[in-house]
Amino acid sequence: MNQILIVESSPRGAESASRQLTRKVRERLEVQYSEAKVVIRDLVKDKLPHLDLPTLKAISTKDPAEAEALKKDAYRSDQLIDELMASDILVIASPMWNFGIPSSLKAWIDHVVRAGKTFNYAGTGVEGLAKGKKAILVLASGGVFSEGDWKPWDTVEPYLRQILGFIGIEDVQTVRAEGMNIPPLAIHAVSNGEKAVEALVI
Ligand SMILES: Cc1cc2nc3c(=O)[nH]c(=O)nc-3n(C[C@H](O)[C@H](O)[C@H](O)COP(=O)(O)O)c2cc1C
């Protein structure tokens, strides 16, 4: 185990349920893999720009000379991809915002899901290049989405699983603090999530 990458996206600091749960996940991982380097990619502290035209050109050109000339515009994407590819375990912490992930996390995904780097077109299909990694999704929501009437509204977990699978990460587990906006559930939401952290297979 060389490296653990933790991607944080809640701006709610100490009050954030996803950050509280992520701390638990980190504590478990640090006990189990004391030799591993832990890298924190905090998308609130270090804001990522959305992909713009120069970046798109730099990360999508197939011409090596042009790629070299545009290298500085691909730098951020290159750096984030290197960080991901050097990691054996990826922890993604996400609040649910409007039934989906925050745009800061989507910006990170847009930087790291890149042809030739984290996936390749293979015949009529696609081959993920980030194989062999484990991912843990740490999700927080105001309502309940793991079961019940609102489950179909959740575009967080299905999307994250789909996009991780696309780049070759199939071993994905989820822990949740859910019901944060439903007072009787909110009291236990984080501690229920912490129990799920103890049950993770890592
Ligand atoms: C902008 C915004 C949008 C939200 N949208 C939803 C939503 O669609 N569904 C939901 O169940 N909770 C929603 N919530 C509640 C959050 O998911 C909840 O507060 C959760 O604890 C956020 O994660 P965090 O504590 O790690 O910041 C929203 C909160 C904010 C601030």
From TrEMBL:
Its cofactor is FMN. Binds 1 FMN per subunit. GO terms for molecular function: electron transfer activity; FMN binding; oxidoreductase activity, acting on NAD(P)H as acceptor; oxidoreductase activity, acting on NAD(P)H, quinone or similar compound as acceptor. Its EC number is 1.6.5.-, 1.7.1.17. The keyword NAD applies. Transmembrane segments: none annotated. It catalyses: N,N-dimethyl-1,4-phenylenediamine + anthranilate + 2 NAD(+) = 2-(4-dimethylaminophenyl)diazenylbenzoate + 2 NADH + 2 H(+); 2 a quinone + NADH + H(+) = 2 a 1,4-benzosemiquinone + NAD(+). Residues 3-186 form the Flavodoxin-like fold domain. InterPro entries: Flavodoxin_fold (IPR003680), Flavoprotein-like_sf (IPR029039), FMN-dep_NADH:Q_OxRdtase_AzoR1 (IPR050104), NADH:quinone_OxRdtase_FMN_depd (IPR023048). It comes from the Bacteria. It holds the Pfam family Flavodoxin_2. Keywords: Flavoprotein, FMN, NAD, Oxidoreductase. Homodimer. Quinone reductase that provides resistance to thiol-specific stress caused by electrophilic quinones. Belongs to the azoreductase type 1 family. This is FMN dependent NADH:quinone oxidoreductase.
